[in-house]
Structure formats: C-alpha cells, structure tokens
Fold:
Amino acid sequence: MSETNPAATAPVTADAAPHRYTAAMAAEIEARWQDFWDAEGTYAAPNPKGDLAGDPELVARPKKFIMDMFPYPSGAGLHVGHPLGYIATDVFARFQRMTGHNVLHTLGFDAFGLPAEQYAVQTGTHPRASTEANMKNMVSQLRRLGLGHDKRRSFATIDPEYYKWTQWIFLQIFNSWYDDEAKRARPVSELVAQFDSGERAVPGGGTWSALTEAERADLLGEYRLAYASDAPVNWCPGLGTVLANEEVTADGRSERGNFPVFKSKLRQWNMRITAYADRLLDDLDQLDWPEAIKLQQRNWIGRSEGARVDFPVDGERITVFTTRPDTLFGATYMVLAPEHPLVEKFTPAAWPEGTRDAWTGGHATPTEAVAAYRAQAASKSDVERQAEAKDKTGVFIGAYATNPVNGEQVPVFVADYVLMGYGTGAIMAVPAGDQRDFEFARAFELPIRCIVEPTDGRGTDPSTWESAFASYDAKIMNSSNDEVSLDGLGVVEAKERITEWLERTGAGAGTVNFRLRDWLFSRQRYWGEPFPIVYDEDGIAHPLPASILPLELPEVEDYSPRTFDPDDADTKPETPLSRNEDWVHVTLDLGDGRGPRRYRRETNTMPNWAGSCWYELRYLDPHNSEQLVDPEIEQYWMGPREGLPHGGVDLYVGGAEHAVLHLLYARFWSKVLFDLGHVSSAEPFHKLFNQGMIQAYVYRDSRGIAVPAAEVEERDGAYFHQGEKVSRLLGKMGKSLKNAVTPDEICAEYGADTLRLYEMAMGPLDVSRPWDTRAVVGQFRLLQRLWRNVVDEDTGRLSVADVAETDVDADTLRALHKAIDGVRQDLEGMRFNTAIAKVTELNNHLTKVGGPVPRPVAERLVLLVAPLAPHVAEELWRKLGHTSSVVHEDFPVADPAYVVDETVTCVVQIKGKVKARLEVSPSVSEEDLEKAALADEKVVAALGGAGIRKVIVRAPKLVNIVPA
Structure:
C-alpha cells in the first residue's frame, strides 16, 4: 500500500465553521479516495496463481466470494433503488476483509439483450455502441458510490473473449449425453463407442456401422444434452422471435412488448435440462437459500410419482402419465393436447359411423374440425386454457383407443385444457374423480363411472352428482377384471396393485414425471451469442472446432428480426443473421479429415440467459485464453469445503424475480461442467440472499397518467400537481412512472456515504421499503456528528484526547464494547439497519458526554463505520495519524467484560401481574434473587400479609410469586 496521504490535500471550505462536514466536503473526500483506491488497487483479490496472483499472506487467509446478480446496462441509468443490493454486498465484503478474509467482489455486465436490439432497430445505432455507452455511464454512477470492486476482473458478456467460452460451454453440452445409470453427463464419443461395440443396442435393430451419417446424427440427437428438434414453441409475431415458457406472461403475451404469443411448431435448439431434474431437486436441500425460492424451484420442476399407461389405437398407442393409476377403470375417454404430434396421425378422413353431432364442432370432417380447433387453441395462454371457471371446449378426432384394463373403446378428443408441457400431452379422463373431466363429460355427454366410493353421502350414481368426487381416503369400487381386482382397497394399495399389473402385462409401468420441460435455447435475434454450429449439404449439424472460437457476430444492415402482424399466428421467423449471405454460407475445414467443405451457419442466436449461466467462473480467472478457468483457481474460490458440500459462491445477492429462470439454468450448466470434470463445484451459488425493493410514490392525474413526483405539492393531506388534485399510490420506482430519484442527485446533495447509510438504514435488507428523500438528512447528520467527534470544525485539527484505554470512563467503555459486539454480529448477519442504529447510539453517547473523545474510542468508532461509510472513515483514519488504508484494518473485537451488563432488570410478578422491578447482578443465584424479591417493599405491600404458596424463580430476570 502507498504511504501517500491523500487527506493532506483536502481543501478548506469557506463556512461559518470552515471544517464542517458538508456536501461539498463529502464530494471532494469521496472523489479523492476513489482515485486513491483505483491507483493503489486496494480491492484487488489475489489468486493462488496466474496473472492475478498476489500477496501470499492474503491468499492464505480464508476466502470469501461475494457476488451481485449481473446488472443489465440500461439506457435510463440507475435510480436509487438499483444500488440497494450493490451497497449491501459492498458493506458485507468490506466487513469480511476487516475480519481476515481474502475477498473476491467484482461486477460485470449482462450486456446482450432485447432492449439494445430494439433501440438499434429504432435508431440504426449498433447495439454494441449503445450498450457500451450505457455501461460507461453505469460504471461512473457505481464508482461514485465507492463500491469496492476488483476492477481487473470486470467484463461484459458481449466481449468476444467472454462469449468465446459461452460458445465453448455450448459445445461441451452439445457433445454430451446423460447416462441415467451413472447419473451424470458423459461425452457423446463414449455413447458412440457403446453403439459401435454393440454394448448398447441401436433402436430398431441393425448395427451402428450400417447407419447412414444422417441416421447416426438423428440417433445421437435423441441423447445429446443440446439438440435441435421440431417442437411446439411460443411464437411471438410481434417480436419476430420464439420465447421460452418463462418469458410468456400468464395472459399469454410476451414479457417484453406485451404482444400475443401463439403455439407454433418450429425447429429450435433445446437444452435437455430435464435429465437433471432429480439432481436439481435433491441438491436444493444443501443450499443456503430462502425457503420461498427453494419452493418455487421445486414447484417449477414439479416431481410427481405415478404410472405410464399405454392405450392402443389402430396398432399404435397413446401413452399417458397419471398419478392415479388406481382410477384406470373409470377412464371413459381420452384427451390429446392440440399440439400433440399424434393428433394428425390418428385423425381419419371421415367421421366414424354414429359420431355424435356434439363431438364434431359442426365440421364436415375430422381434419377440418381438428384444424379449426387447433387454430383457436393457439391464440390462448396456458393459464386461459387451464382456467377452472371457463367452459370446456374440444372436438372428437375421429378415433377410439382401448382402455387396457377392460378393453372398452373410448373416444379420443383434442381439448385445450390439456397441455403438451405436462406429462405426455395426453390424459386418460376419469370424469368421476376430476372436476375438469367431469365438466367436459357433461358438456359432451360422455359416461361418468363411479370408481371411488363417496364418503360424503352423495351416493354412487354420478348422474345425480353436481361435481366430481376425489379422495385419497375412500375405497376403490367398480374396478376389477379377470386378472386384477382393486375393489375394497385403499388408494395406496390399489395404486401398487394396478401398477404391478400394468408392468406384468406390458400395458404400462410405474414412473416419475416432471413438470419441468427442456429449455428452449434459440432466439430469432441479432444481439446474442452466435451458435458455434454449421450444417452440411444434408442438414447435419456439426460443431465448430474450439480452436476457431469465438465465432463473432457479423455486421448486418438491419438489426431486427422480421416482425409481423402481432395477431397473425401463421407466420414464421426470419432472423437478422439469415440476411447476411456472405456470413451464412462459408467454406471451412472442421478438422474431421474431410478437408474444406461448404457449410451453412446457424442463424439463430442464444438467449440472453446464456451469458449469465456461468459468469461466476469468469470472475475467477478473467484473462485466461486457454481454459474456461484454471482448476486450482476454481478450487480455491468455489470448491467444496466444510459447510459448502457442493461448493459455489459464498454469497449471492439479487432479486427474487430470478427464482426460476436464471438460477435454474445456471445450476444446470454448473452440473454439466462438474460432470465433465471442468469444475469442482456442482452448484454455482451456495448462499442466496434476496434483497427487497425500494419503492416510491406514484402520482397520477384524473386520466391515470403519472405526473412528476418532484412537482407534486401536499396540502392538508391531499396532493396536487399544477393545481390539480392527484392520487398517490406506493409502487415501483422508474423513469416511466416519473418518480425516479437518481443516486447522482443524492450524492450531489449529501454525498455517497450518506446515501449508503440511508439505504442500509431504511429497514431489513430483505424487506421492501418506501423511499423518502426528506429522511436522508438524518444519516447526513450522523456523519456530521461523527466528524465533529473527531475533527474540530473551526481548525480542522483532531479533537481527540490522546489517553490510554485505562483512562476512559467505564460508561464510555461499556458503550463502546457493546457497540462493537452488536455491530459485529449485525454485519455478519447482514442486519445493516440495526448495525447503523448501534453506531448511532455510540456516537450519540460520545456527543452527550462531551469533551474530546478518547483516541481508543475514536479509532474504533471509525473502524466500526468503515464498511458502511468508507470514504469518511478513510479520511478520519488518516487524520488520526494512520498511513494505511482502513479497508484492510482489523475490525474491532469487543472485550466480553464490558459487554455483559453490570446489572439486569428482574421483573417480580404476583399472580402474573408485575409488582416490582429489581436491578440485580446477571450472575445472581436463584436463592439470593428470591430473598431480594420477597424483601422488596412494593412486593411486601402487594402481598398484604398473605401467605405464599409457591415462588417460581428464573434468574436473573423473573420471580413469580403465587400467594396462598
């Protein structure tokens, strides 16, 4: 560290008190110390090896890897709500440095994304230009807050040196398959070896050597963890792209732009995240995450146990998954999701004889009926399709299936209340036991068979019922054939018996199902990572050699995917990259021994989630051009250890809105990389903390339009804008709501340290809280009193007393050590608001005592403040005569002798009512406490001479007297 003293250059402010802590002084101090930290590399966290290796003593300390969720560089810049988490992690990181840790804390940018592309479409500005400008502005805003980031480790996902490794990871996933027996990913080359040797049978018979190249590619595609397939997708014509399920709102519209989303069948890249469903569930138990987030992930993965049942149809079969195979005898019809691939296969040219008019939808042929119904269903969201209150709709497809337990021919319908996203996209309908099936059966005049004995007195004739009856406690009835009988059994035993029968007869098997679907990984956009995939003349996908990565985005004249009428579902994507012919068609030597060949590049790009799936690893070894991350460095920062059984980041802070998307995807990538031996950590983030939201009042006029909050006046409890009364409602803070307050404004008026203190003091970090600019001044005054307790405002000289700790009065020492003990515990527990309260209490005590503050007290007070308000702490530390930065000083440790109260208050109760309070020693015995209580004059008066039946003593805080 440098021995220069930046405090020596502080200017004198012309004021009634020329050395008072003011906003101007704060600005000067903060800018000067920020320059000092940058010049000295104060926050550089050394690696054990490589270009970021450093101080061996620091490397030998316990490590702490502290991360914020990746920010997106918005053109609107930051408002005061954005830095809440960044300030919190900075405070925690500073505290960890001061308690003996080597702390890695940095920040990069998740810079691919739709907003920059949309801006490019509107203005013609290249997305990189606008994104880099936004990043520059955001870096400036964040720097002003005094965040202690290791800037050597920062990057953006749009850097080719970064997305080279995003593409490399994609290739690892593409070249892997999941071995269900070994329960891990393995290289595809090992799968090929199994097929080639005959260890694994080729489906359909034959040998691997007899397959054509295209057949081999198709077969391997059924196993690869990254694969392309024709599947139903969420097509958004208004955006010109497909969306993942998680990017579609409950109303069936795009999260961005609010455009209608339709189901369409397109060839897209997918990630086989479903292979990891069990591990993603099981490993949650050992993560230190909020239970609410774990629950969301468990619900999203949606594990359920049941049985697979095959219903024969004309020599083929429809497979269903059911959690209630015990109700199989009550299945009286089947339903396929409109998107189910078997719909077309089983739909005949003409209606079977005797088809009811109610089943046809008024169409002349099954083909017409199904096509019309599919078009209708494509315009509805999944939530709309599953709404309990809506009328049940559907059409008969013209085919019958055979119920395997009784041989009955049951009609097959297509209906929108069944989704492809759950189970097999087909259900056996048991209308007696499911309300949706019940309503559908009533609407289409289908049989309803009672197979669970009702316990509510409704009887066993479903024609008299008003609703379905479902129970796990009732007995099974009407459920037997020549080979198996479930009659009289409970649900659990009946499920076991019918599952055994299904497996014995080959009609099905016990199985586990998941709600989780494979991750749709293609986007029809320009501003994203290009896929490192090319196609030969036969349409076979080939991975690019790692040696020619990164595959960089080419320049294009038009950044927008082709968009369409938002309501036109019969459209197909056209991507920006597909219009660059010189880039799309290329001659390459892939190193496969075939020499140069002509290929066509993949013209979709990766989703914006890709870059944030692994960025924690790049922070570790950001300049490594030869490896994803050096194994020794990864092991040092993220490897498993006591308390971290799967390894991972020590603390990850961000919004709860990423509970499913980012966190689930990142966990999946981490597990694949772990299986393949590239990392030692099977989980990316060990501890997760979700900060709350800073809210602000939104003011709206009579038209419902937001008006500038800064221009609203309050009069007699009402609010007015330009003379017109407006409504007020607490909500989000943002530019569009005209209620945003920027950190720049607060820093200019009070200084960054004040902003930091205010945001941390507003309440518990995980709770949302309203912003109140008027309240900021309270923390500014705290800093002024702190300054005044150390510096003479008239002379600028120290005002502390150079005395030994033994000369400090006992009350002050007690206040000091209690504050040290409390602040230390609060900072460790991320209770920053209560830590600030304890600092305030100590500071107020010193102000009240008056006179020069003893140096031992002043120095430790400054150290207590250092994580929270680092600029003023650095300044005061130097004024106290120290030449080292406060950043790496030891955090104070409390003397236990002063932490324990000299006395505690003991409550004395008679018949449960408080009659006296005694000040006693914390170590008082029960016998002495009882004597003192009974001798107290208030207790004696309250007893009035009555006898005592019992005395209950809980030393040192309670005595309960029970009179006779």
User: Anything to note?
Assistant: The CA atoms of residues 160 and 550 lie 6 Å apart.
